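Subject: for your reference before the review

Hello V.,

The reviewers asked for a structural picture of the protein, and I figured it would be easier to keep everything in one thread rather than splitting it across files. Below is the amino acid sequence we used in the manuscript, unchanged from the supplementary table.
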Amino acid sequence: QLQLVESGGGSVQAGGSLRLSCVASASRLRMGWFRQSPGREREAVAGVYSRDTTYYTDSVMGRFTISRDDAGLTVYLQMNSLKPEDTAMYYCAAGATGNPTMSWPWQAQDFPDWGHGTQVTVSA
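And here is what came back from the structure prediction:
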């Protein structure tokens, strides 16, 4: 089973920045960052396919940037201009090795491998 380890969460004030990292035990073409807050469904925040095809949910467009290193084992989420509504547990997810066709926004149930999550808290 693929291992995913997230880091970089924390508490910041509105307008601040955080950089999340996700280290994978093996490379997958499709990697995503999801978030979930209490009482809400897990939603896709940003995704990367292969090296440089990226996707973002509308609420983070222009503020968040997803990227991956040359080896494809580490995926980053740079989060700028954070807002209180960004507060959530953030999860890294890896797509299946069979690389099925998937349209954005990605759905959590289509991802077989997950990290344990890292908490992001943004205060007003």
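For the response letter, the relevant points are probably these. The first strand starts at residue 4 and ends at 7. The chain has a mean pLDDT of 95.

Happy to draft the paragraph if you're swamped.

O.
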